[in-house]
Amino acid sequence: MTNVLAYFRLMRAGWVMAREGVIASLPADGLHGPARAAHGLASAIARRRAQRTDRAERLARAVERLGPSYVKLGQFLATRPDVVGRTLAQDLSLLQDRMDTFPMASAEERIVESIGREIDDLYVRFDPPIAAASIAQVHPAEVRNETGTRKVAVKVVRPGIRQRFYRDLDAFYLVARLAERLVPATRRLRPVDVARTLEQTTKIEMDFRLEAAALSELAENTKDDPGFRVPTVDWERTGRDVVTMEWIDGIKIADLDALRDAGLDLPHLAEVLIQSFLRHTLRDGFFHADMHQGNLFVDPNGIIVAVDMGIVGRLGRKERRFLAEILYGFIKRDYRRVAEVHFEAGYVPAHHDVASFAQAIRAIGEPIHGQSAETISMAKLLTLLFEVTELFDMETRPELIMLQKTMVVVEGVARLLDPHFNMWKASEPVVGDWIMRNLGPARIVTDVKDGLQAAARLAEQAPVLAARAERLSQEMDEMAKSGLRFDPETAEHIGKAEARHSRSGRIALWVIALTAIYIAFQI
Question: Which helix (H) or strand (E) holds 251?
């Protein structure tokens, strides 16, 4: 029944996409037969109003009609240009996550249920919402403290969003399975895994305790960093459906005139932003993965404050070394080393030729070295690199794609602040320091330390492993003497399965026999 409903939801989504002209705006080059006819039909039923707008606007209107789950899907796919293509990913990145607000009474009900205390007990004042998105809306409020009151921001989950998302998720999984089954070329992109990643990230985003934990972790990581911070969390007033945090009185980083009027140095802010992001990525392996200009403020002290940490990214030590080594390799024009790093990390299958891969990477690196430093985009370099790796069967690496997408956004904000921003010069202190600490002699010390820790953990587990090995040896000896034995329940299941197969076989034989008789009579 769930599958049938998923088909109906999918049909509705296709109808909305067709009516809003999204399908008609897609290129028809290379389409033949039924696909070409379907594209023509979609063009014919598109609204006239839609035909007069560009593709990004059509897509935004369709997603808005389909509801919050599709807004979240669009935002997620905007981070996966490897799946939807760069052009469509760019259109999706323009989606504005702005929805109608829901009633105050519903918000208060969510808070009381989540925290278990009345609104008047939690807040001195609780005001109407000032912004609403697909998952939540934000209310200004005040709480008591030692000196009187302080202003806070209260983020409350949208009623029914979880149930709505899981209903629509069935349709997303259906599309992914159909793509894997019917379009072999998509299997390399693992669409079902993409749907599973969307499910996991949205689950996390809809639990505000986890967002609060992410804010707390990033605050701890950056407590000594210059020029960057995140809001503090009020844990007493935070639960699954609500998070209360410090209210940020600051200037939006996109408001350049207000920043200049406040006497702030915009090129310096751009430098701080990039260095902070790279520091979080390389040093901590934990970064804010939604650092667009709407989530960045500058407080009265000139410090950048990042808000809304529903989406975060993590990189392990191997991924951080990979990133640092390829950046360093491009800087030094050591394309052979960049290629070797891909093979050492296991990202490119071993049956490919390292020299051929290095040649492909050279095609990316050499044009860059012909440009002035301030025009070279680190994010564009990574984008081109991931495009080349497709030719060498590199499987999708979601953590690297998220990093690349976030870097595109952060670098874009930096160039908004300073059109002549030199990405490489700004990043050199952070990247250079990390390389010196982790890719030079210090790397050997770190690897030895990690090896000793792994050996110590193995030694702790040695008695348990020895006991398991002894038990396995005894069971193997018993099997050699007495043969393979099953417990009664397993034997019963095997018997039932055999009976089913026997029945199926007999039915098949009867069908074949009756068919043969019918053919004989016809002849």
Answer: strand 251-252
Q: Helix, strand, or coil here: 242? A: strand
Q: In the annotation, is 100 catalytic?
A: no
Residue carrying the six token digits 């599709």: 70
Q: Annotated catalytic residue: which of 82, 91, 241, 290?
A: 290
Q: Hey, which CATH number is domain 96-247, 3.30.70.980, 3.20.20.100, 3.40.50.170, 3.30.200.20?
A: 3.30.200.20
Q: pLDDT 10s digit of each residue in the chain, 523 long?
A: 456 777 777 788 878 888 777 777 776 666 667 767 777 777 777 777 766 777 777 777 787 778 777 777 777 777 666 666 667 777 676 666 667 889 999 999 999 999 999 999 999 999 999 988 888 999 999 999 888 899 999 999 999 888 888 888 888 888 888 887 877 767 766 778 878 877 887 888 889 999 999 999 999 999 999 999 999 999 999 999 999 999 998 999 989 999 999 999 999 999 999 999 999 999 999 999 888 888 899 999 999 999 988 888 888 888 888 888 887 787 778 889 888 988 888 888 888 899 998 998 888 888 776 666 566 677 677 777 777 777 787 766 767 777 877 888 888 889 889 988 887 788 888 887 887 777 666 555 655 666 666 667 667 777 777 777 777 777 677 666 666 555 566 656 656 655 555 555 555 445 455 555 544 444 4
Q: Which residues pair with residue 312 across a beta bridge?
A: 288
Q: How many CB atoms lie within 10 A of CB 204?
A: 16
In the chain, the amino acid numbered 223 is K
**pTM, two decimal places:** 0.71
Residue 425 CA from chain centroid, whole number: 29
Alpha carbons within 13 A on the beta-carbon side of 120: 0
Q: Give the residue extent of every domain in the chain.
A: 96-247, 249-439, 443-478, 486-523
Instruction: Report how far residue 379's alpha carbon sits from residue 79's, in angstroms, rounded to the nearest whole number.
Output: 13
Backbone torsions φ then ψ of 192, nearest 5 degrees: -65, -40
Vertex 137, ends 131 and 142: CA angle to 5°?
85
